[in-house]
Amino acid sequence: MWFDRDIGARIRRVAQQFPALVLTGARQTGKTALLRNLFPAATFVSLDLPSMAHQADTAGDEFIRDQPEPLIVDEIQYAPGLFRHLKRLIDTDRHRMGRFLMTGSQKFQLMQSVSESLAGRCAVLELDTLSVAEVRAALGENTPPPAEMLWRGGYPELHRSPSLDPRDFFTGYVATYLERDVRQLMRVASLRDFERFIRACALRGGQLLNLAELARDVAIAGSTARDWLSVLEASGQVVLLEPWFNNAGKRMIKTPKLYFRDTGLMCFLLGLDSAAALERSPFLGHVWETFILGQMLRAKQATGTAANVFFWRDAQGTEVDFVIEHEGRLRLVEAKWAAQIEDTRVATPLLKVRNQLGKKAADEHWILCRTARSHRWPREPGVRILNGYEFTGWFPT
Fold first, then answer.
1. Are 261 and 205 in contact (CB under 8 A)?
2. Which residues touch 327 (CB under 8 Å, ≥6 apart)?
């Protein structure tokens, strides 16, 4: 089964504007399959094979000469020495676009190589796991219901093979991730401690990051916790969401929030063994909030919008889950698992912040829940109640 990816059109467009393109993202998000589907005539070579990676890294000129263009190079991070050869080739003809299409699972390492060798010559895009809209486009009425989708997550293999137990998939996924990405990105004395660290992060998903507390609970140094968190970011497992901050305005809390990029992995790390267990879990609200942020970030990647996503928490403790900043105006977004919103207090923080923002506030703000019918908040026309599981209009097009 093939899943059309919303970011596909943007990849094609960008490949016509740059000589090289790097598609990053966590393992098994479908990077390789997507590039091969979008560019079927391109030559393909994978650096997963150590001998091939060694040749590309140490004899880049010969390696490239043997491969007709356009060329897809899979897992480019295994051959950082190849970038300087790509630079020389690109500079011989800067007008030829889409010559080198690369994938990589370690964004920070790739960005260092790109900035050193391919600055201005290479675009970098990121691929997450499937959005619910992408799953729905492929599966139609067989799309999992909300709790099942959140528990299963968006890794393509879990939807290509519905009989595959997510627990079996993620057991293998985490083991492979620890052995490959973690060992390569940094020397970790104990992979067991790192796995405990990941699970401790899952317990704090959707919450303000407290590195000191995280380090204490895993019995590691604060500097180690900071380094290990950077590994999770670099390999596309977590994202740190920054608070909206205006130097000219009120003092805001500057601590970021920690989110997993895939709710299925988060649920696995939390030890939730079914969708029903998720619905009974005290973590359900945080998982739903993680899901909503994930849909926004996937839409942002697909559209290339200049809009940015933050959260709001001021010094007085007023909190709003998300803030979408676009063209100088702020849209406030709350995420609630409820099937319908009846308690007027749900909108209280949103309305309070909207009034503080004044002209900076957008004309419309959202509460994303599981309502059967999206509608305007009866008590406040400037607030819309939306079905967060079905909504797709995250950013202006």
1. no
2. 306
User: Mind listing the domains of the chain with CATH numbers?
Assistant: 8-126 (3.40.50.300), 140-397 (no CATH)
Radius of gyration for the chain, computed over Cα atoms and rounded to the nearest angstrom = 22
Tens digits of residue pLDDT in 72-131: 999 998 898 999 899 999 999 888 999 999 998 877 667 777 777 788 899 999 999 999
81-117: b or e for each residue (b if 16 or more CB lie within 10 Å)? bbbebbbebbeeeeeeebbbbbbbbbbebbeebbeeb
Cα dihedral: 234, 236, 237, 238 (round 10): 70
Assign 2 to helix, strand or coil. coil
Closest CA to 186 of 216, 223, 213, 240: 223
Q: Which of 61, 88, 90, 60 is closest to 76 using CA atoms? A: 60
State how far the Cα of 134 lies from the Cα of 104, in Å rounded to an integer.
22
Token readout for 277 is: 């267990």
Mean pLDDT of all residues in 54-64: 90
Six token digits for residue 6 = 């919303």
Q: How many residues does the chain have?
A: 397
CA geometry: angle at 95 spanning 5 and 7, to 5°? 10
Those residues with Cβ within 8 angstroms of residue 189's Cβ, 6 or more apart along the chain or in another chain: none
Among candidate residues 121, 130, 136, 178, the one with its CA nearest the CA of residue 33: 130
Please check whether residue 246 is in contact with residue 310, taking contact to mean a CB–CB distance below 8 angstroms: no
Give the containing element (helix H, strand E) for 386.
Answer: strand 383-387
Are 262 and 280 a contacting pair, CB within 8 Å? no
